[in-house]
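Quick one: examine the sequence and fold tokens given here and explain what the tokens say about the fold. Here goes:
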Amino acid sequence: MPKTNAFTHRLAIFASGAGSNAQQIINYFKGRNEVNIALIVCNKPNAGVVTIAANENISLLIIEKETFFRGNAYLDELRKHNISFIVLAGFLWKIPQLLIHAFPNKMVNIHPALLPKYGGKGMYGHFVHESVLENHEKESGITIHYVNENFDEGNHIFQTTCPVLADDTPDSLAARIHILEHKYFPEVIERVLIDLED
């Protein structure tokens, strides 16, 4: 990505869990003049990603359901941090229309399967991998996509695959999927940001 004005893109990462993808994204963009991970948004005060925010000295916003779904969806707080792009990295709540309209084609998600299979409400983490194994799929993978009003239905940006082995468990398949997530998610985010500058 070419050097431009400092912090051309200010990213918010939304996460609900341990934050391994968030950590990879933070590491990837660390020291870049054009991209700043400006905010971590989390709906679980005890999630591992909260500790990552503290360790990385990144501002943290803990959100609650009432304001997120029936209030202003924390849009004022995102604007206060000058957020220009949102990354969902293991964030389990559906995104309100207010936020989707405020960040058109500026919000991406990663899903641990090859959409459109194994997507939708309740399909996350082990639930996805268990379904893949129950259906005797020969391959799985990841899908990075834009976010729209429906779970996992936004336009696809990138997919890549890995084999499903005969002796796989949900844990062993999850480990293989995590390798793909950590390798490709930061790179694809960078590509999308470059496209926004064109």
